[in-house]
């Protein structure tokens, strides 16, 4: 059994929703994303914490009849665990994954097909499910990724700029013949 919640608005990081990737410490490939939840988004934080508590209660049987003290939980504090990354400042975060590709739609609820339209750094809503696990002595609450709705663009995360931004100030006249452009001889150059 799992507990489903829909939260937003959140920011997406490490967005691997188009191709499954090998998970850390496993040979299994999954689709995944890191969900950044601003601490100021009390409604989203409350929904996640409630779902985690419900998943704990449902997992008591898996945990051997009681909730262990060292239970691994998915909601983490970015200010404590990722203090070196400014994108995690004033945020909680959780990693969500799934075996099958999540649905990804835009704010008009149309499926996003162009893989460049959803990326690490954009914002939206996410449907998650929380469930208990007990695997090889590791006990905790996992977070499954269901679906995503992108609401708007954000600064691309990961140290790479978007091509659209790099060339935003360049305008090419469609009437100019192909080839090298001429340079005004009055321009100052280094060489």
Written account of the structure:
- It is a single chain.
- This protein has 191 residues and is mainly beta.
- It has a single domain (3-166), classed as Nucleic acid-binding proteins (OB fold (Dihydrolipoamide Acetyltransferase, E2P)).
- The chain contains three helices and seven strands, in the order ββαβαββββα.
- The protein has helices spanning 42-58, 78-81, 163-166; strands at 3-22, 29-38, 76-77, 91-98, 103-105, 123-135, 138-152.
- It has a seven-stranded mixed β-sheet with strand order 3-4-2-1-6-7-5.
- The longest helix is centred in the first third of the chain and has 17 residues, at 42-58.
- The relative contact order is 0.22.
Furnish the topology, listing elements before pairings:
Blueprint: E1 3-22, E2 29-38, H1 42-58, E3 76-77, H2 78-81, E4 91-98, E5 103-105, E6 123-135, E7 138-152, H3 163-166
Helix content: 10-25%
> How many distinct helices?
3
> Over the alpha carbons, how many angstroms does the gyration radius reach?
22 Å
Strand content is 35-45%
Rounded mean pLDDT score: 91
């Amino acid at each position: 059994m799992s507990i489903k919640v829909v939260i937003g608005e959140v920011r997406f990081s490490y967005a691997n929703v188009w191709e499954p990737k090998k998970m850390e410490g496993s040979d299994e490939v999954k689709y995944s994303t890191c969900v950044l939840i601003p601490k100021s988004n009390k409604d989203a934080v409350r929904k996640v914490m409630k779902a985690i508590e419900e998943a704990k209660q449902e997992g008591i049987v898996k945990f051997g009849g009681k909730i262990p003290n060292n239970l691994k939980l998915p909601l983490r504090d970015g200010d404590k665990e990722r203090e070196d990354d400014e994108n995690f400042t004033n945020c909680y975060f959780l990693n969500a994954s799934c075996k099958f590709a999540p649905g990804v739609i835009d704010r008009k609820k149309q499926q996003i097909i162009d893989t460049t339209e959803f990326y690490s750094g954009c914002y939206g809503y996410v449907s998650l499910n929380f469930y208990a696990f007990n695997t090889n002595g590791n006990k905790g609450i996992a977070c499954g990724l269901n679906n995503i709705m992108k609401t708007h663009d954000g600064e691309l995360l990961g140290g790479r700029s978007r091509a659209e931004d790099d060339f935003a100030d360049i305008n090419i006249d469609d009437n100019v013949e192909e080839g090298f452009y001429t340079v005004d001889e009055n321009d100052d150059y280094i060489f």
